Amino acid sequence: GQQVMQIPQYQHVQEGEDFTTYCNSSTTLSNIQWYKQRPGGHPVFLIQLVKSGEVKKQKRLTFQFGEAKKNSSLHITATQTTDVGTYFCADPGYSTLTFGKGTMLLVSP
Amino acid sequence: DAGVTQSPTHLIKTRGQQVTLRCSPKSGHDTVSWYQQALGQGPQFIFQYYEEEERQRGNFPDRFSGHQFPNYSSELNVNALLLGDSALYLCASSLGTSSSYEQYFGPGTRLTVT
């Protein structure tokens, strides 16, 4: 898979604030996956986006896939302390899954 | 329905030693992939096993080897351990070899090399 870059590396918000992490690729992606890893835990699959311009929602989480399929974003509305963790995007590529470095989210009550 | 299980949970080894990590996939899954996750980094793909054969391999030296058994469980072996091998080793299972399939991760084995 191609290398995917994630920004920011780290974000600290107050509970109730919104949060967004961005994933960018220099090449066109066939699709993209998002995972969440809680502190001390393991990655858990959140979603896969396949279509250009696709937008999917899971409660307070909104996932977008860019029109050119070179970028993606995850937006969390009104963060809660349970949202704490590292969010990874991952490029399935042709045969192997390549993860970004992740965005660590810290939420203060 | 049991998820992915891994053993041991933690392991401490000395440089030069060899280690074997074990993984049982989620019930019904036939494909196992191994990842190395260094502190503060994303998981890095090591290799994938399907039908008891290595199907894909990431950029890891031959010191890293594996095996898959008829019951789909898998082992990861690392020889001649280096300090840089200290990491969380994650096993993930899926139904099929496509990287587009959802990966179910186990809790991982934390390996410390001293």
Q: Describe it for me?
A:
The complex is a heterodimer of chains A (109) and B (114). Chain A is an all-beta fold and 109 residues long. Chain A has no helices and eleven strands. Chain A has strands spanning 4-7, 10-14, 19-25, 32-37, 43-49, 55-58, 61-65, 71-76, 85-91, 98-99, 103-108. In chain A, strands 2, 4, 5, 9, 10 and 11 form a six-stranded mixed beta sheet that branches. Chain A has a five-stranded antiparallel beta sheet with strand order 1-3-8-7-6, with no helix packed on it. Chain A starts with a strand and ends with a strand. The model of chain A has no long low-confidence stretch (mean pLDDT 95). Chain B is mainly beta and 114 residues long. In chain B, 0% of the residues lie in helices and 50% in strands. Chain B contains no helices and eleven strands. In chain B, the strands form two sheets. In chain B, strands 2, 4, 5, 6, 9, 10 and 11 form a seven-stranded mixed beta sheet that branches. Chain B has a four-stranded antiparallel beta sheet with strand order 1-3-8-7, with no helix packed on it. The A-B interface holds A 1, 30-31, 33, 41-45, 48, 88, 90, 92-102 and B 33, 40-45, 48, 56, 58, 90, 97-100, 102-108.
Features:
heterodimer, A: 109 residues, mainly beta, 6-stranded mixed beta sheet, 5-stranded antiparallel beta sheet, globular, B: 114 residues, 7-stranded mixed beta sheet, 4-stranded antiparallel beta sheet, 50% strand
* Coarse morphology of chain A: globular
Instruction: List the secondary-structure elements of chain A in sequence, H or E.
Output: EEEEEEEEEEE
| Rg on CA atoms of chain B, Å | 13 Å
**Series of secondary-structure elements of chain B, N-terminal to C-terminal:** EEEEEEEEEEE
Give the strand tally of chain A.
11
Estimate the helix proportion of chain A, in percent: under 10%
Distance between the termini of chain B: 37 Å
Tally of DSSP β-strands of chain B: 11
Residue runs with pLDDT of under 50 for 5 or more positions of chain B = none
Instruction: Report the C-alpha radius of gyration of chain A, rounded.
Output: 13 Å
Uncertain ranges of chain A: none
